[in-house]
Design the sequence.
């Protein structure tokens, strides 16, 4: 039996720093997705919200907040939180009820309003919270973690700061015509190199901003899609939300240390296991992938993800980048949407935004950034505290 | 004026300071940061249900897993030691126990003094001040090999 569910509609509110309540963005994206699907809100029997943790009680119960804003319709409700993987976990919740036959058509929404600057921990003294301690004891910001990973690429594989800058140049070009992108401007290697170093070796333009934005997806059983007149919808083949396995020996944000390994490194890293689980569930191999939307919190992280998703061998991402293979028109375009480089991060919406982009790509509707003949797309992201996600879609 | 650790029970001070880990009395897996002494601890090895731990000193030396610096002042609850803010370096260091531990890099050293795989040693230095007290923290200090000293 197939475990696929159908994507009936997708929609977004443009990313930016708009400073409006997150509910406004969420409703905008939800209405766009519903319009795209042709499903009436009254017919939706499940709504799942991606929780936002910086917007008060309404954010903690995001599913209900969006349901009330759209007008109570009696649908079942759920709210998910999984840090950066929130949107994918929300989508997985919807998928599970649909595949169990408990729901037929679901609306999944994530939206965020973000403060300026570094993402800092919540207020108060919390001596047992690593996310608080890493700032208090070490001054360890998110970009500092990204920089650790970037530096390893340089010392182990010969990556250069110019390589990282080239990721930004590529993604900036990809996002130029994306109507939902926040930054739509060409960037040169020189621009990146001339921007301030935040955490060596990463420059300001290597690091993604925090943004406001919203994304929504309408999913349904394949039977419902057929009755709805869609014989060949985009399908979700897999959603991986695996946790790490012990021992987790790669330094993960916001931890101060890793687990101890008993003398030998585990076979797979956590990030590798995220993609592996998605491929296995989908029954699809990395060679079948037409495009990837990966979490470029930093430019260098995009290169890590290419290897974590087995799109190339460990240490080979720079050579693909330099050969133009990850650019539109290349063998395996990475972040055709423009990625976080062009969007900035709106945490509970971001994993859903990746799904929106892959859907448009598979439908051939990604105007100005279309991957020709796209058949299979994969997403990947990672969040705090053992969360991560990968979604495989195909048509 | 006195000096005290910025956090209790995570490291020793003195001539040869060391990080303090918790070793499971059932399966011998070692953890850092140590499990809090004032509450029930659980071994995180999925094959072990141990709840008893011994306090152990971790290796004082290790190899750099990676490194960076903080060229902008991190947000609160970080407390800068100086005004204006002075950047500092950070390193993740793999110890013989198989644990990689983050730490600031010792005063006077920056990213130019580090590389992946280089050896570093644990020292204790001042993180910042709280009233009249120096708050102490563990740091990683590059180990200068014999022969390199002559080049400096």
Sequence:
């Amino acid at each position: 039996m197939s475990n696929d569910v159908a994507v009936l509609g997708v929609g977004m509110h443009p990313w930016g720093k708009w400073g409006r309540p997150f509910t406004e963005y969420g409703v905008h994206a939800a209405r766009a997705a519903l319009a795209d699907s042709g499903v009436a809100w009254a017919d939706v029997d499940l709504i799942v919200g991606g929780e936002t943790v910086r917007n008060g009680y309404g954010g903690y119960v995001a599913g209900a907040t969006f349901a009330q804003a759209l007008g109570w319709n009696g649908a079942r409700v759920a709210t998910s939180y999984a840090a950066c993987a929130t949107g994918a976990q929300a989508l997985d919740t919807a998928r599970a009820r649909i595949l169990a036959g408990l729901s037929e058509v679901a609306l999944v929404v994530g939206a965020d309003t973000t403060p300026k600057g570094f993402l800092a921990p919540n207020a108060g003294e919390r001596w047992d919270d690593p996310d608080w301690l890493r700032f208090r004891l070490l001054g360890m910001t998110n970009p500092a973690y990204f920089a650790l990973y970037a530096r390893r690429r340089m010392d182990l594989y010969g990556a250069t700061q110019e390589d990282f800058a080239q990721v930004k140049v590529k993604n900036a070009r990809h996002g130029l015509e994306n109507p939902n992108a926040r930054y739509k401007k060409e960037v040169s290697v020189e621009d990146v190199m001339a921007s301030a170093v935040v955490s060596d070796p990463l420059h300001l333009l290597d690091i993604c901003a925090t943004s406001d934005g919203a994304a929504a997806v309408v999913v349904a059983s394949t039977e419902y899609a057929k009755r709805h007149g869609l014989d060949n919808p985009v399908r979700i083949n897999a959603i991986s939300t695996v946790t790490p396995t012990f021992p987790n020996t790669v330094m993960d944000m916001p931890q101060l240390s890793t687990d101890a390994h008993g003398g030998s490194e585990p076979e797979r890293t956590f990030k590798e296991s995220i993609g592996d689980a998605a491929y296995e569930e989908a029954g699809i191999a990395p060679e079948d992938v037409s495009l990837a939307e990966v979490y470029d919190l930093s430019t260098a992280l995009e290169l890590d993800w290419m290897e974590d998703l087995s799109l190339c061998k460990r240490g080979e991402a720079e050579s693909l980048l330099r050969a133009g293979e990850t650019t539109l028109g290349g063998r395996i375009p990475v972040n055709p949407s423009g990625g976080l480089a062009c969007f900035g991060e709106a945490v509970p919406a971001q994993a859903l935004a990746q799904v929106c982009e892959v859907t448009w790509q598979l439908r051939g509707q990604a105007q100005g950034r279309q991957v020709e003949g796209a058949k299979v797309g994969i997403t990947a992201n990672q969040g705090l505290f053992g969360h991560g996600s990968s979604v495989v879609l195909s048509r | 004026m006195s000096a005290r650790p910025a956090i209790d029970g995570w490291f020793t001070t003195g001539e040869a300071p060391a990080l303090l880990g918790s070793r499971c009395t059932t399966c011998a897996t070692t953890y850092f940061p140590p499990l809090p002494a004032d509450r029930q601890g659980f071994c995180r090895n999925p094959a072990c249900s141990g709840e008893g731990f011994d306090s152990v000193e971790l290796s004082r030396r290790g190899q750099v897993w990676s490194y960076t610096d903080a060229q902008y002042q991190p947000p609160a609850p970080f407390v800068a030691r100086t005004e204006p803010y002075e950047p500092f370096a950070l390193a993740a260091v793999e110890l013989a126990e198989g644990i990689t531990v983050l730490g600031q890099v010792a005063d006077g050293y920056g990213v130019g003094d580090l590389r992946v795989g280089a050896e570093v040693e644990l020292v204790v230095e001042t993180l910042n001040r709280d009233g009249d007290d120096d708050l102490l923290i563990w740091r990683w200090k590059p180990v200068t090999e014999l022969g390199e000293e002559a080049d400096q």
Notes: The first strand of chain B starts at residue 2 and ends at 5. The mean pLDDT of chain B is 93. Helices of chain B lie at 148-151. Chain B touches chain A through 43 residues (CB under 8 Å).
